[in-house]
Predict the 3D structure of the following.
Amino acid sequence: MILSSGTGAITARFPVPRKPFLRLAHDVPTNFTADIILRDGYLLERHQVITADGYILTMFRIPGSPANPPRVGKHVAFLQHGLLCSSADWVILGPGKALAYLLVDAGYDVWLGNARGNTNSRRHIFHDPDAHNTDFWNFSWHEIGYFDLPAMIDYALGNTGHTTLQYAGHSQGTTSFFVMASLRPDYNKKIRSMQALAPVAFMSNLRSPFVRALAPFVNQIEWIMKMLGVNEFLPSREMLTLGGQRLCQDESPVQEVCANVIFLIGGFNSAQLNRSIIPALLENVPAGASANQLAHYAQGCNSGFFRQYDFGLTLNLIRYGSVRPPDYPLHRVTAPVALHYSDNDWLAGVPDVRELHSHLSNSIGLFRVSDPRWNHLDFVWGTDANSFVYERVISFMNRYN
């Protein structure tokens, strides 16, 4: 392992042999994302980054494939997952369908990020995520945007010799981007284009019953969880994985129940969910997150604003100098942003996406998915995501190269 200083972070790289590429399987620890990539025949590197506040994040790099070998000068694409998910989202659809593979096939050097707290990034230089009342979980997606994304972006650029990259994010991967680009505006110049899939910032028109049911009680729930010392929201556990494999597999009489649980989160679209991948999805999702991440979204749902975390009147005065948390200054987002949205998205409502668009000074535009049933999770799990979304995403990336 080689340690070196990075911009805003200390970085750690776990080198792997470059020849022969098929030996990479012996140098990458067992991991759900890694297993998928190696199974599908693509090349793989595992990298670790330590953020400025001490979180150890794992990134997976797909520099090429045997049919499309790595070479110097490839454009860099960085992909960031959504809430309770991980880097596996970008490869789970398989070759010819998953965005990460399509980008590799199109000649990109692809980097997959993992936010703090998920199964790939559940480490800190001194906080223990499993300890009672640990400070490890004292973060929301604000810290992911402020610390994690800059550390991972700088690391990817430093290792490739580039000064700019293409960014694609889904759901929370867009929220955290807008945090970074508004509060650390120097990072805008490092982004050639940002492809926002199901962008979430404003949330007044959210329709998901799960979040709607939680939002009015967020303060009470947050207090109860802290009193109980429960800081991690829906951690990934072996029992859930085993249950998903047995109850949700093909030929299971309750497989459709599994599908409907997924639909209740982001919207119904039966035609786009391949039931055969549900056990694999449940092996990876939920990948773990801080309870504060969901609470922060619930606060936005209640307030109608895109603003920093609300700690309560007293702590807000101490932290922000005001009784209310400040809005994120979206006018400082100058990177070109394409907003990809859909009519049947229960988490990123169309009026909210349009509100976000109105605050962006350099928007590429609003791009509606033509399928009226397309939902929030179809952007990463939809059977036809390539034809409905990814072809357009890659076209924009190529244009902004």
